[in-house]
Amino acid sequence: MAGNRLDIYVEGDTLLHRLDPRTKIIWIPIGFALVMVVNHPAIIAAVLFSLIALALNSNLPKKSLRNVLSASAFIFFASVLVFPIYLKEGPVIFKIFGITYTRDAFLYGLAVGMRLMTMTTMSMTIITTTTFSSTILGMENLGLPYRAAVGASMMIRYLPTLANEGNTIVEAQKSRGLQLEKGNPINRARKYVPIIIPLFIRSFLLAKQLGLALDSRGFGLHDSRTHLKSLEYRKLDRVFLIVWSVALILGIIARITGYGVIIPGLL
Amino acid sequence: MEKRKFMDEPIVNVKDLSYQYPSGKDWALHNVSFRVEEGEFFGIVGPTGAGKTTLAMCLRGLIPQNFGGKISGSIKIAGVGTMSKTPGELADRVGIVFQNAETQAIGLTVREDLAFGLENMKVTREEMQKRIDRVSKLIGLSEFLEREPWALSGGQKQKLAIGGVLAMEPDVLILDEPTAELDPVSKSSIFDIVRRLQDEGVTIIMIEHEVETLADVADRILVLNEGEIAMIAPPDEAFREVSLFKDVRERVPFVADLMSTLVDQGAVPENRFTSREEEAIAVLKEYLEGENA
Amino acid sequence: MPEPLIQIRDVNYAYTKEEDVLHDISMDIYPGEFVAFVGQNGAGKTTCAKLMNGILKPRTGEVVVDGQLTEEVAASVIARNVGYSYQNPDHQIWAMKVEDEIKFGPNNLSFSEAEVKEQVEEALELANLTDKRDEYTFALGWGERQKLAVASILAMRPKIIIVDEPTTGLDKDGSLRIMNLLQRLNKKGLTVVIITHDIDIVAAYANRVVVFAGGHIVRDDMVEEVMVDLDALEKADLRPPQHIRVALALKEYGVEVEMSPELLRENISNLLQKA
Q: What's this model's pTM, rounded to 2 decimal places?
């Protein structure tokens, strides 16, 4: 696992770090809805840039931001180039390879491309400013049953353990002459059987032991539990959510009145 | 730590305990009866398959609750019968530490793990913080509270496991071969913690193969073989019976074997028998000096 | 003087870019030896062992197995010469039946069908598993799975076998069985290396001990020398077994250190009977 942490949390005391995890959880559908409800590139660009600003503010390593943006860049370009093949609204801007590029189709492509970049940037910033523990605590607070919350943290907690088990098994079988790299794809797939079976069995056994440990620590004793950490909504959270909710409402109005859409009738 | 005083009843009272696993043909435990007094350090030894872990699970209320099978007899921990309660309901009376340190680490950080049991028991936040503070110092992990469990060494994980259980403040602590998978340094730091708990008056039941350590710290030792009790006695009495241990196929400390031979040969009187290393060396020095004089 | 089976020359190893886990390690393993690697977790003994079968390649320095540099060969090929039995048999066992499990190793190497059959038979016999050949592997007890893991490596007929923690989780009987198996094999010519925390079996079975501490070798010598080298053992946070501690404490009274507890007991008994 990279660095000292299991998740990709980056330390910091930025705006996003100071938000309650519940705020960030609620923000996701609002933000996503906002960029889905309009398809005008200018509006989406505004949202994207504010997200990039938030991301830069939140200690997210610039390299990670660049990676996220360039990963979605491929789809961005695909979007810009492909939509005009099928959409012909608006004045023609140029012709290339026999395909007529109209202004509105091009702008639409821009909008859809930027949507994806916005959503990935948003997810990335949330993930790097919120620890798994607080996310799970937030969800539990918002109504996730406590057993599911514990289940979720178990999955996360045991990922590196299972990865280690897998590595050890691979080493052990290699030491018995197993050559994973040789052979055609079908043979190679079969060679993984001596790895998958022990891994399965070990996972089973670990799960059993874990079950005993959980029961011995009182898991399920009551229908809910108290929490060591407390969550508090602060003014920052309220303001943040209000700003984004208002933006969403404006977006909806823009859609209805036609200003927020470059091509009405299309998502 | 608040202690309940069980003046008239032993803190662990097992009567005619018999248990058969659902898939088992034989009785894993057969008519096992014994008592443990409050504050005692009670060791359990025996070969693999003797039923030691089964017994530990019964004491903790995991058998028959999590395993099914046929059970008869009674187990009372701190006055409460275990068979009619869920493991969670017994958590503040009896706790167990298993051999595998990895699968006992539940929280995403050391602090969260120590809190886990307390959250389940709906302990208040203030009380939680107090207990976590106390326990983390006791197990020597107070500097590691934000560490993630996978980043801990085997010994640290096991200390964390002990801490997680202690935080629930059980009257009786069961340890099932807690050091089996650890290196010597980790082994001794776990034994140090256990000794510290003994000094604090915690009742300890420990399954161990390290008979040398048990000879030093245990008040009494139960020898289990094929589901039945072969012997219960203080270490010196128990380890004196070298041939019993041979039959049962369990180890005795070297000094116990040695002193036993010497006493049988008449080279050393019976009342000088000991199963403890330091004492044995002192006794031997005396008698060897006598030889050289 | 026979050629060493394994030569390690000035090897350094690190798992990450940060700290070296092994510093300037050099050692030769000769045919017929029964070597024990001891030391705390993280001292480098397992890392060193994994360099010996090519699972890990040295960062600097070289590891030569049977005349070949391990860097140039895949671990699965080095397995022909160096067998490695992992600490937990459940990390190896995957077949349904005992016999199939033992067949796996030799089948991966270029043996003929007849050879595989013969080697499997022999491995079953050596490990006393012949009458269990048709049993389900997962129905075996821990001690037997431990033996099965070792038998599966033996069937590959390596020149040397490395066993990681042969006695962990085993009681007195189980430990004796596996160690006696390794001893029998060693007497027949198989070179044995064990990695262990159990200092009692080191004294009872090994003829050479390599003590690891902090990524260095602090002592590499005959067992009789190492078991009484309290300084070297202390550097590795180790102590000799109880019987040797007792012997050392009574040396001035004419007690001689013995690797065998039984001999030591006789020794002391004789001394006290001289009256």
A: 0.90
